Amino acid sequence: MNKNDLISAVADSSGLTKGDATKAVEGVFDAISGALKKGDEVRLVGFGTFSVAKRKASTGRNPRTGEPMKIKASSQPKFKAGKGLKDAVN
């Protein structure tokens, strides 16, 4: 399922127009992204938790040449599925 499929599914299940469903889906994505940018956690009970994981700087190796290289510290988005989502999938 891609973004357009998700918008269509939201429009069908909620009775919204496709334009309103697009605004709703975009709003949810923007709210989650904004919260993660601030370092907050987004917890949706029964669905899952979006959070940010900090990765430390490290030294790696270039796979072609084998020479060492530095890998910068970074923040990575993370999602952990909740019980309701796990039960729905299994």
Structural category is: alpha+beta
Chain-averaged pLDDT: 94
Number of strands: 5
Please count the helical segments.
3
Percentage of helical residues? 40-55%
Question: What is the radius of gyration?
Answer: 19 Å
Low-confidence stretches: none
Sheet with the most strands: spatial strand order: 1-2-5
**Overall 3D form:** elongated
The proportion of strand residues reads 25-35%
User: What is the string of SSEs from the N terminus onward?
Assistant: HHEEEEEH
In this structure, how is the largest beta sheet organized? Answer: 3 strands, antiparallel
State the distance separating the first and last CA atoms. Answer: 19 Å
Characterization of this structure:
By secondary structure, the chain is α+β, with helices and mostly antiparallel strands. 43% of the residues lie in helices and 30% in strands. It contains three helices and five strands. It has helices at residues 3-14, 18-37, 83-89, and strands at residues 42-44, 48-55, 58-61, 68-71, 74-81. The chain has a three-stranded antiparallel β-sheet. Strands 3-4 form a two-stranded antiparallel ribbon. A hairpin with a 3-residue loop joins strand 1 and strand 2.
